């Protein structure tokens, strides 16, 4: 079975699927965010849900053994907060904060909510063990070919992630954290290719995902002088469940053109 990491004592060893598309011997954000979610979700009290995760990706995580450190910042009756850090060679390379909130009855009254048309691919087109995501853009149908969707239209992706760590079942929170990092791609994939690299990722959840499939639809992208903020809706076959926000930097000198011939 394919996985992002293999356990090795207190550390994990990256597998090829965890590598970044930008190259340079670095790891991609999905695996890094997934590892930090894996580390802190054990602190989630019974009757709570992970409601927000913010990951700061301020140094490249290298394609080498990784140790994750964590601590509980606050454990309260309705709010628990935990931090996690990715450590390599004694140096923190990424960190995250996760907020767990207690669940309960909803207050009375009616709230305004937007009407969302969140398309899903046919049932059975994505295998449970994961693989390449499906994409949709504009009026184009779902496909796994990146070049089919390199345009200026709104992007949607549909994911079933492989296991994060070999021998472990991927949890709903880990899955959401991994897909959340791909908001950078969905929000910043232009007609010329992928030209922004995200420095962070914030995932908000009103509930955990249901099933093994997750969709991500770009909602907004605001760019000025090479700094861009992208926002996307996270959803499953039951409907919307959260948002993903990324702050990204121009990486034009390493732009990934998905229509270029593969070497």
From TrEMBL:
Using the record's annotation, list all stretches that form the Acyl-CoA thioesterase-like C-terminal domain.
153-245
Pfam families the record matches: 4HBT_3, 4HBT_3C
Coiled-coil annotated spans: none
Domain of life, per UniProt, equals: Bacteria
- Could you tell me what this protein is called? Thioesterase family protein
Where does the Acyl-CoA thioesterase-like N-terminal HotDog domain start and stop, copy by copy? 20-100
Which taxonomic lineage is given here?
A: Bacteria, Bacillati, Actinomycetota, Actinomycetes, Mycobacteriales
UniProt organism field = Nocardia jiangsuensis
């Amino acid at each position: 079975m394919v996985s992002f990491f293999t356990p090795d004592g207190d550390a994990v060893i990256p597998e090829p699927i965890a590598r970044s598309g930008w190259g340079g011997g670095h790891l991609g954000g999905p695996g890094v965010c997934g590892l930090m979610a894996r580390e802190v979700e054990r602190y989630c009290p019974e009757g709570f849900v992970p409601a927000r995760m913010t990951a700061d990706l301020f140094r490249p995580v290298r394609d080498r053994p990784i140790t994750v450190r964590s601590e509980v910042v606050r454990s309260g009756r309705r709010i628990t907060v935990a931090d996690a850090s990715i450590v390599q060679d004694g140096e923190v390379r990424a960190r995250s904060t996760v907020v767990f909130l207690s669940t309960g009855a909803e207050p009375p009254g009616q709230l305004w909510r937007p009407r969302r048309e969140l398309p899903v691919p046919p049932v059975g087109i994505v295998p449970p063990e994961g693989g390449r995501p499906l994409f949709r853009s504009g009026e184009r149908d779902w496909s796994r070919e990146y070049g089919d969707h390199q345009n200026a239209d709104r992007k949607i992706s549909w994911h079933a992630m492989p296991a994060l760590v070999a021998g472990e079942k991927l949890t709903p929170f880990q899955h959401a954290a991994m897909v959340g990092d791909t908001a950078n791609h969905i929000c910043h994939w232009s007609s010329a290719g992928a030209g922004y690299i995200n420095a962070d990722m914030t995932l908000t959840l009103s509930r955990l995902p249901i099933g093994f499939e997750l969709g991500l639809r770009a909602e907004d992208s605001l760019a000025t002088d090479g700094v861009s903020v992208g926002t996307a809706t996270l959803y499953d076959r039951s409907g919307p469940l959260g948002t993903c926000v990324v702050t990204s930097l121009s990486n034009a000198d390493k732009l990934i053109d998905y229509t270029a011939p593969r070497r």
